[in-house]
Amino acid sequence: MNIAVLVSGGVDSAVALQLLKNQGHTITAFYLKIWLEDELSFLGTCPWQEDLEYVQKTCVQLNIPLEIVSLQDAYHQKIVSYTIAEVKAGRTPNPDVLCNTLIKFGAFYDLAGHQYEKIATGHYAWIEEQEGTFVLSRSTDSFKDQTYFLSQLTKEQLAHVLFPIGKYTKEEIRSLAHEFNLPSKDRKDSQGLCFLGTIKFREFIAHHVGTQEGPLIEFETDKQLGTHQGCWFYTTGQRQGIGLSHGPWYVVAKDFEKNIVFISNKYHEPDKIRNSFLISQGNWFIDNFYEYVEKMQSPLLVKIRHGEFLHICTLKNTVDGVLVTLQERDQGIAPGQFAVFYDGARCLGSAPITKAL
């Protein structure tokens, strides 16, 4: 096939390149430049030049053509604006989920990707065609699995996507990188949001939303124990950055209008169930999602954050929306994040969490 491969400078996309080349495909590598270097230059240095150097070395070694595409404007309009709006609304955004949908397999596809039979990336996930339907499944590596970040793709986008490393573990990918002697074979994995690089998310939010002192209130007693610089810096279930003794302290809730952060050092006591939430309209990879769930032979599974942990859950229609109830409680249900549903390894799609109950 004629394949466009999105490369980042990391080991995963480099191995994906090598694997596809070994399979005999015609390949063009694309580096998407989305760093907000001008806007954020005062906060720190965005390492895109270093990323690009690894990409260039890899493409020269593999004799694969490389094109650099600037999608900074599209990223700012679609992802950064969404992130700021969600924070201002008191929710916890997940820009990396929408980056895949709107940028990598959206704006890039519209600009250049439509000229290729497939767009490949180094995501840990797997897609296969079953009776004319493209099925997204969890990676062999449960810890690295990235279907959470891919759960807002459309069914049409799934048909154009390829994930060459989805059936490998991270250890196997590192081993292959050494076997192929790729330039990034020992490079550490990147951390944080894709458009910030080494810049801290808190600094980015402070730049756009500002700071405002507010009270830290103990949930059980309604006593003020300290102050904070803005409730938009906090996420439900968070324990880092509260800065009080006699902890550990956890964020229990936020009153965005009054700029109050409620905290508790009794967060995990049995009376605090925290096992249900409401979701809004979902993005589903199958037709008639709710009818499908009713007929499932295995338990419905859900992830409420990136990682390997899956909850068994049930769904129920209520006057307020669809209620998701977890079999076990979870201390970090955060409105604005996505609930991603599974039938075994198969990803069924996702919906934003609107309210924790």
Task: Please provide a written account of the structure.
28% of the residues lie in helices and 27% in strands. It is an alpha/beta fold and 357 residues long. Strand 5 (125-130) and strand 6 form a beta hairpin. The longest helix is centred in the N-terminal third of the chain and has 17 residues, at 72-88. It is globular. The termini are far apart.
Features:
Elongation Factor Tu (Ef-tu), domain 3; SH3 type barrels; Rossmann fold; alpha/beta; 357 residues; 6-stranded antiparallel β-barrel; 3 domains
Brief rundown of the structure:
The protein has 357 residues and is an alpha/beta fold.
- In helices, the fraction of residues equals 25-40%
How many structural units, i.e. domains?
3
For the sheet with most strands, the description reads: 6 strands, antiparallel, barrel
Structural category: alpha/beta
Terminal CA distance: 48 Å
Instruction: Indicate the proportion of strand residues.
Output: 25-35%
CATH class of the largest domain: Alpha Beta
Oligomeric status of the shown chains? single chain
Order of helices and strands: EHEHHEHHEEEHHEHHEEEEEEHEEEEE
Q: In terms of per-residue confidence, which ranges show pLDDT below 50 for 5 or more consecutive residues?
A: none
Strand arrangement, major sheet: 12-16-15-14-17-18
> What do we call the CATH homologous superfamily of the largest domain?
HUPs
Mean pLDDT: 90
Can you count the beta strands?
18
Instruction: Tell me the radius of gyration.
Output: 21 Å
Which second-level CATH architecture of the largest domain applies?
3-Layer(aba) Sandwich
Number of distinct helices: 10
The CATH topology of the largest domain: Rossmann fold
